Amino acid sequence: MPIIRIEIGKHGKEQRRELIHKVTEVVVDVLKVPETNCMVLLKEIADENWGVGGKTIEELKESFGKK
Length: 67
Hints:
Layout: E1 3-8, H1 13-31, E2 39-44, E3 51-52, E4 55-56, H2 57-63
Parallel strand pairs: 1-2
Antiparallel strand pairs: 3-4
């Protein structure tokens, strides 16, 4: 039973559903396993809890005027 774990930032419910659906499709196609045997786990990480280049994602968004 494949277990796929993905760490992402905050996204909407529909985006998460689509990601789970499409990842499942790829795993089924490549590994030739039944869809019911494929598990996808999403771990959402808040913007203030991860960073790039010494700044949190929250800080980077603020510097670009996005929130």
